[in-house]
Amino acid sequence: MKRILTITLCCLGAAAMLCSCGGNAAKKTAEKAAADSLAAVEQNQRTMDKIAQLPAEPVFDIITSMGVIKIKLYADTPKHRENFAKLALNKYYDGILFHRVINGFMIQAGDPLTKDAANKAKFGTGGPDYTVPAEFVAAHRHKKGALAAARRGDAVNPYKESSGSQFYLVQNEASCAQLDGDYTVFGETIEGLDVIDKIAAVQTDSRNCPLQDVKIITIKLAE
Questions:
Q1: Nearest partner of 71 among 182, 223, 222, judged by Cα
Q2: What's the Cα-to-Cα distance from 184 to each of 33, 151, 175, rounded to whole Å?
Q3: Quick one: residue 173, left, alpha or beta (phi over 0 = left, psi -120 to 50 = alpha)?
Q4: What are the backbone dihedrals phi and psi of residue 51, each rounded to the nearest 5 degrees, phi first?
Q5: For 56-72, what is each residue's pLDDT tens digit?
Q6: Could you tell me which of 133, 130, 127 has the C-alpha nearest to residue 77?
Q7: Across the chain, what does the average pLDDT equal?
Q8: Is this prediction's pTM over 0.70?
Q9: Who's near 187: CB < 8 A, 6+ residues apart?
């Protein structure tokens, strides 16, 4: 009887220790989640403070594995200007690939799924969980080097809202002119048109995805 009581007490003690360990682990997980959430809020506030101090038409360097494309964002497409600046300043684009390249047309990037080659079948479908309202400005055409927002097709997107992160750069004005008024143009290339041409010329597969990675190393404010 005494032996049974001892074993029972040992089991209860072990169970209590396990509960305690489990409780401590859960507490640490909750504390980490709270700390991460607070850090994200603080980072977002710092980013918004930076955006508030940007010039009306800020200039960013898209630093790629094939060279630098310097772009200017337009003041009269403010929603797209702020969204692109926010993502760039938060390093959202770091390591993302140009996943759709059509020589004589345009080069497209901005899908975070492209950071992992295992997602290749899904390239072109990723992004944040929001869209950006269309901002069509008649003066902004699909000229060479134009920066425009990709989007889903009209059948599922009747208001032509832009992707939260995916964008493209025009390589050929004539073939992209048909997109005027249907896709929001929110910036232009001021240096690096030759880099756009170099990227457009790479070999691609049947889905227009480059056979060798063309990567955005980072996008940062131009000095």
A1: 222
A2: 37, 9, 16
A3: alpha
A4: -65, -40
A5: 999 999 999 999 999 99
A6: 133
A7: 91
A8: yes
A9: 71, 72, 73, 74, 77, 80, 81, 84, 146, 147
Count Cα atoms within 13 angstroms, Cβ side, for 58.
Answer: 25
Write the Ramachandran bin of 95: left for phi over 0, alpha for psi from -120 to 50, otherwise beta: left
pLDDT grade for 22, boundaries at 50, 70 and 90: low
**Residue whose pair of structure tokens reads 């859960």 in the numeric block:** 26
Q: Which residues, in sequence order, are bridge partners of residue 73?
A: 187
Please state at what angle helix 2-52 crosses helix 78-89, rounded to 10 degrees: 130
* Cβ atoms of residues 215 and 96 within 8 Å: yes
Torsion, CA 198, CA 203, CA 208, CA 211, rounded to 10: -110
Answer yes or no: is pLDDT of 16 > 60. no
